[in-house]
Amino acid sequence: MAVIEDDLLHLAKDLASAPDEVRRRTAISRAYYSAFLRAEMLERHIVDEPPSASKEGVHAYRSNKFTQLNRNNHSDIDAEVVFKIKSVGYLLKNLKAQRVVADYHLDRNISAGDAEQSITEAESIATKLKEIYSALQLPNH
Amino acid sequence: MAQPKTKTSQLIDEINRATANSDLSEFKVATLKKQIADLRKVAAQEANVIEGILETQLGNYDSMHAAYSKALKINPFDWFTVFNYGVSLDRTADWTTALTYAQKARECATRPEDLTDAIALIESVLQKLMRFNELQRTYDSNYEYVVRVMDAKGIKDEDLSIFPEMLSSILRERRAIDYDHFVQLLTEEDENIYVGVKLNCSAQDAAEINDLIAARLAELEIPPNVDSTFTMGVLMGGSDRG
Questions:
Q1: Does the predicted model carry a pTM greater than 0.80?
Q2: Which residues of B touch A97 (CB under 8 A)?
Q3: ipTM of the complex
């Protein structure tokens, strides 16, 4: 059965309140992926030069594409929307850093608050993307 | 200069007077030190504090630090001692520890002016810690890696000044000075270096601050090599102390 980004976010919320750390870690990871996947359509919509980083994977590619969006190359996009897209890029980077800790740094403690922060940030990204999709007249998520 | 809460001897007046009159000659200092030594026989703590005051005026910050270290052992909760111990750490460039004591001084403060002084010290130390180089050197194990990546990507120290300046300004605006410690290099994936501050704040506050950071960064034209390498943000405190 297919799922949507909101399903991941809901799962993240369920897991975040769990008493054990492994679920809180998973909550952070799911929160990030809900945001990352929600931004996929935007990435496809923006036709641009590839961002600069040399060894980047798909995650860095997406966020870098947003943060390095050049307003001069996108006169069709309103300046305010460009600004919002760049903001989403930075928020994605930040959330990704939290996800990397949750997924790879098992020696660090992850609290319920950490999971809550990631979820709040994933929600903030979702809100901004909704506004961006609406402004660009793309199908809404 | 802030005054100790304890009733101090005429020595302090004498030091202050000598300082004001630029009269801290070798002879004068020797006389004062003799008086401090005499005082130590009957009031060790006061002698330590006065020694700290004298060494501060003389600009001997290692000696100042040593004097307040002794004082702190005797009275670890006295605002004046804690505050000046923090100042001595600041002067000797141990900013991470200075911040701890500046925050302790804030907790010890009972008078508004002491609180103001403690907050000023916190902010001053914070500014220094925010300097990227110092921040990186705090984490020696990561420093070489960071330098290697910066060299490979042609990033200079000054290219990074925007991050601490901006973060510092946001934290000041939010009065979010109660931070725990820096978190650095959370991820080496894609040669992306995350530099963050762990704040003693709620998850909601941390998320709001990150929102502000993202908005400020979005207003800038950050060179692509810097933009794709460094990420800065805050994490709520309380989860990781390592």
A1: no
A2: 186-187, 192, 194, 196, 231, 233
A3: 0.91
